[in-house]
Amino acid sequence: MLLLIKFESVSKVYEDTNTKALNNFSVEIETGEFVFIVGSSGAGKSTLLKLMMREEVPTSGTININGFDLNNIKKSKIPYFRRTLGIVFQDFRLIQTMNVYDNVAYAMRVIGSRENAIRKRVPYLLGLVGLNSKARSKPNQLSGGEQQRVALARALANNANTIIADEPTGNVDPKMSYEIVDLLNHINADGTTVIMVTHDLHLVKTFNHRVITIKNGVIESDYPDASHIDVEPYKFDNPEDAVGSYFVEESGDDLDYLFQNYAIDVVDDIESEDAEVSSTQSSEEADAE
Questions:
Q1: pTM, whole model, 2 decimals?
Q2: Tens of pLDDT along 210-250?
Q3: Residue 188's Cα: distance from chain center in Å?
Q4: How far apart (Å, rounded) are the C-alpha atoms in residues 97 and 89?
Q5: How far is Cα 282 from Cα 112, in angstroms, rounded to an integer?
Q6: CA 158/CA 146 separation, integer angstroms
Q7: What are phi and psi of 148, to 5 degrees?
Q8: How many other CB atoms sit within 10 Å of the CB of residue 245?
Q9: How far is CA 108 from the centre of its chain?
């Protein structure tokens, strides 16, 4: 298998608080793996994800992800790197003024995808997560599990080869948690790499993938499966039952977040493509004359 993610002797110190979040941290993740990241609050999990998304830079050490050298990457290339990642957040970060279809479509629109491509892909993704019937619903009309499935569909919108899920089951009940991770499991089975941070050891035990435990900024353990975890896996008579209703507060921040992180040079790309079409048409007309 190909090496996808490599942290080599990475340390991260937040100078304002003199906090060492990661200390000489080294890990390798191969293409197609499903990896659970566990550890108590303050262990360094959030810093690890921020470094993976290039929201933070290491104090020392090197990071390579999807062929990008994150230590030396140019600022203009960061949005293109992030397009290789699909991010699923604990708080969903859906745009409350948009319906389900447009929340997923927006992730494609900000990178300049054509509407005909969007019209083909979005229904496919909503079908994948079982939400075609909710396409016209607003986020506040959905349960917590449904909102998280919309967020997952959005993460898959641009064919990212890596899904990073930050506590994606933190705001839903156990049955919904099972359903969300089961969906990630199926996506992983099709070849997508999945990295999931979680506190739910019962879920980890249930799906039995590689488990990396972080403590005080270092890897305490790295096991190929969850056989060492002494908890019972989840057992449901019908794990797809929809239970509970959870909502998120309205916010415009997520719209800004998508534009700031993924929409660099979109207008230029579209204008360039239009110019090429126009040039081709002009040439054809000249040849006809």
A1: 0.79
A2: 999 999 999 999 999 999 999 999 886 654 443 332 222 23
A3: 13
A4: 18
A5: 24
A6: 20
A7: -70, -30
A8: 11
A9: 14
Angstrom distance (rounded) from CA 207 to CA 223: 14
Compute the distance between CA of residue 202 and CA of residue 89 in angstroms, rounded to an integer: 20
Positive or negative: CA dihedral 123, 125, 131, 137: negative
Cβ–Cβ under 8 Å, residues 149 and 155: no
Q: Is 136 helix (H, G, I), strand (E, B) or coil?
A: coil
Determine contact, residues 164/53, Cβ cutoff 8 Å: yes
By CB neighbour count within 10 A (0-12 exposed, 13-18 middle, 19+ buried), where does 8 fall?
middle
Buried b (16+ CB within 10 A) or exposed e, 248-263: beeeeebbeebeebbe
Token pair 């290789």 is at which residue?
84
Sign of the CA dihedral 216, 220, 225, 228? negative
Name the strand (E) or helix (H) holding 182.
Answer: helix 174-189
- Strand order across the beta sheet in which 19-30 lies: 19-30, 3-14, 60-65, 68-69
pLDDT in tens, 68-78: 999 999 999 99
